Amino acid sequence: MDACKCDRRNTHYSGAIYNHGMDMSQAALAAQSGKWNRRAEMIGEGTLRLLGGVGQFYAFVGSILRHLAGLHWLSRLAVMHVLIRQIYFTGVQSLPWLVMMILLVGATAVYSVVPFAHQINDPSLIGTLVNALLIQELAPLIIGIFLLARSGVAVVTEIGHMHVRGEDMLLQSMGISTVEYLFLPRLLAFGLCGLILTMLFAGASVWLGGLMLAWTNEMDFTQFLLEVRRGASLDGMLLLTLKGLAYPLLSCAMLLFQGARAGHNPNQIPVCTTRGVLWGLMLMVFADAGIALFGSLM
To answer: Helix (H, G, I), strand (E, B), or coil: what is residue 39?
Structure first.
């Protein structure tokens, strides 16, 4: 009898341990499942916010393009005055920095191409490398990043402070379109100055690099220009024009969009500035990848 009671107690104890282990396993599985559910919710909410932001960005750009196509802004002196001021700030005041970038980056890149071509005994690569690397890739990307860093922060901060102070509402009460007065001049100035600065950077880098080669007796200046001319093509110049115009326009559109999202809270201006610069840079990278993919398919 004592043995039977002992066996029953042992069986009951073992069952309790088993049930307790099952409860612990189920609790662990429930906790793990809850953790994955929270992660899935976070991913879903982040995806929805991203898609919503993309939709708002496209609507914002579409509004600017509609006002641009309307051409009513051409007859408004206030808009033209803002456009001239933005061109002066974005383009003219950037010329000293442009000269520095040509000396430190552009001419140095050109100067490095010729010794590389001589090492592999293929001078015909000089024109190809200069046009493919410097003119088509390096020039528009450097100018786009430069404008984003120098003028982009000012654009977001200026637009954000205008919204915080209620200047946009004041303009609307006076019958002035905020898109035409605030956004459109800055977008046009970015695109125009970006294209001109890109052309200047590419051309001046080639000439200064050729002069450095002639000065160091690496290569005759005229022969260098002839090699660059042989490597040039109409498609390459069109690609340079496209990138020189598209990169600043895309980055400026994102900067304006983020500045407009600051609302009336001044604490949001630094946040929107950081987002504008980062997303503007990402748009340039995506555009470059898209152009390269399209070119490979063609």
So the answer is: helix
Q: Per the structure block, which two tokens stand in for 57?
A: 């960005």
Distances from the Cα of 102 to the Cα of 233, 285, 288, angstroms: 22, 22, 22
Torsional sign, CA 154, 158, 160, 164? positive
Q: Quick count: other Cβ atoms within 10 Å of Cβ 192?
A: 18
Q: What is the pLDDT of residues 163-218, one digit of tens each?
A: 778 777 777 777 777 788 888 889 999 999 999 999 999 888 888 888 888 888 77
Place of tokens 């690099």: 209
Position 61: which residue type? V
User: CA 238, 240, 245, 249 torsion: positive or negative?
Assistant: positive
Using only C-alpha atoms, the chain has a radius of gyration, in whole angstroms, of 30
pTM here is 0.79
Token pair of 222 as six digits = 């005229």
Nearest to 86 by CA among 187, 198, 157, 159: 187
